[in-house]
């Protein structure tokens, strides 16, 4: 199977590395920035770099993976022309497969790896779940086959379920990472070493996969420790955004503990 990579960012970089190590032929790397395409294509012997969106006149592939930001997908879809019969799939967790419906003479689908990607961080593709959706049996079969080359967990998933998964992933990954960044900033402001929190963070993550997280919630919000909560809010007075975030999360923890739905308060 030949797979062309459309994009040269974090996801594309890891796809190139993973597919290359799996022995998949990558004849083409596209980026709207020629230098970026050249850098990534340079990691694969024989791969051609391009910023041209008429993919019919370039080295062809059976599968084209659109590993570009969600905001760039509509314009690419509007301008790109692919070889007849190719499978074209985007890698977004949030965008519908139907976004590709206007592409002519190709099979379309979704190839969504459930992971956070940074170029500088190595990853083990075998442990990354890949969610696949195909608009036709041909697309579904091709994407399932490709997914199994990379990962031990490949799941057929429709667009609605994928969106729900993506929202959950934002809570589990993006929001959690932001909170760790807040914690790091607070420590640095107090001139305390960041690694003081490492055992706590690792234990929290490990415990979250051993028990339902809500059932093992700890801390002053869960205990209803008003004195501690007020002391923390006092400390955060000089950082109103963090103080507000603390209040919102405290209220959420308390409402969950009371088995009440949390909708948040109106400003």
TrEMBL record:
List where this protein forms a coiled coil. Answer: none
What is this protein's record name?
A: DUF2520 domain-containing protein
List, alphabetically, the InterPro entries matched. Answer: 6-PGluconate_DH-like_C_sf, DUF2520, NAD(P)-bd_dom_sf, OxRdtase/DH_put_Rossmann_dom, TM1727-like_C_sf
A Pfam family = Rossmann-like
Domain DUF2520 positions: 128-253
Matching PANTHER family = CONSERVED HYPOTHETICAL ALANINE AND LEUCINE RICH PROTEIN
Under SUPFAM superfamilies, the record lists: 6-phosphogluconate dehydrogenase C-terminal domain-like (SSF48179), NAD(P)-binding Rossmann-fold domains (SSF51735)
Annotated ranges, domain Putative oxidoreductase/dehydrogenase Rossmann-like: 1-104
């Amino acid at each position: 199977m030949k797979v062309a990579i459309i994009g040269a960012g974090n996801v594309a970089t890891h796809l190139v590395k993973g597919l290359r190590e799996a022995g998949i032929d990558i004849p083409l790397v596209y980026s709207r920035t020629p230098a970026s395409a050249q850098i990534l294509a340079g990691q694969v012997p024989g791969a051609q770099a391009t910023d041209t969106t008429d993919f019919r006149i370039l080295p062809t592939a059976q599968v084209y993976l659109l590993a570009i930001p969600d905001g760039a997908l509509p314009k690419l879809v509007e301008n790109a022309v692919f070889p007849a019969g190719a499978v074209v799939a985007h890698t977004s967790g949030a965008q519908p497969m139907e976004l590709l419906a206007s592409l002519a003479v190709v099979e379309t689908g979704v190839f969504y790896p459930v992971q956070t990607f940074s170029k500088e961080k190595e990853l083990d593709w075998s442990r990354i779940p890949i969610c696949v959706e195909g608009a036709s049996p041909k697309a579904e079969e091709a994407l399932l086959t490709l997914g199994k080359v990379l990962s031990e967990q490949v799941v057929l998933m429709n667009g609605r379920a994928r969106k729900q998964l993506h929202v959950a992933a934002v809570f589990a990954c993006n929001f959690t990472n932001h909170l760790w960044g807040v914690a790091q900033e607070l420590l640095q402001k107090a001139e305390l070493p960041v690694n003081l929190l490492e055992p706590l963070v690792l234990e929290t993550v490990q415990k979250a996969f051993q028990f339902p997280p809500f059932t093992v919630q700890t801390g002053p919000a869960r205990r209803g420790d008003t004195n501690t909560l007020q002391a923390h809010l006092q400390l955060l007075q000089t950082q109103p955004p963090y103080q507000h975030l603390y209040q919102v999360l405290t209220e959420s923890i308390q409402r969950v503990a009371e088995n009440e739905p949390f909708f948040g308060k109106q400003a």
